[in-house]
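Hello forum,

I keep getting stuck at the same step: I have a sequence, I want structure tokens, and every attempt I make locally crashes halfway through. Rather than fight my setup again tonight, could one of you with a working pipeline run this one for me? It's a single chain of 136 residues.
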Amino acid sequence: MREGDDMAPGGACVDCHTKKNERKVLFTAAGTVFPFGHEADNCKGSNGLRVGMKVVITGADGAVIELPVNRVGNFSTMKAIKKPYRAKVVVGDQERIMETEQTNGDCNACHTAEGTTTTKGGDPAPGRIVEPPAAP
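Reply #2:
Ran it on my machine without issues. Output:
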């Protein structure tokens, strides 16, 4: 497995890093942005560096955290996030906004290739976190 910021695009980041670090959580939020909604784990995600892509998280307290998306689509933060939070993917003036507020910062835990949920009775994600459409 690759190490560093390029590791395991699509994998459940927070869960994996928690297990590997003896239950010490490193990330409060982390995930992968993909060009399409149903990519398999370990497929290269969107190259966020090429287009200045970022994930913007707005906490319940109104605090905004901007997370750059790296060359394989991964993003992460260790900053505190007041939940529930809102999230969107931004490239220039184009946005893809998450429809519902969230409480789980392990974004790829729900945003799998087929989409799932970590909330009993909750609506599943439609698939992967997908970059916004290109500007017209």
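Residues 16 and 25 are 9 Å apart (CA to CA). If your local run keeps crashing, start a new thread with the error log.
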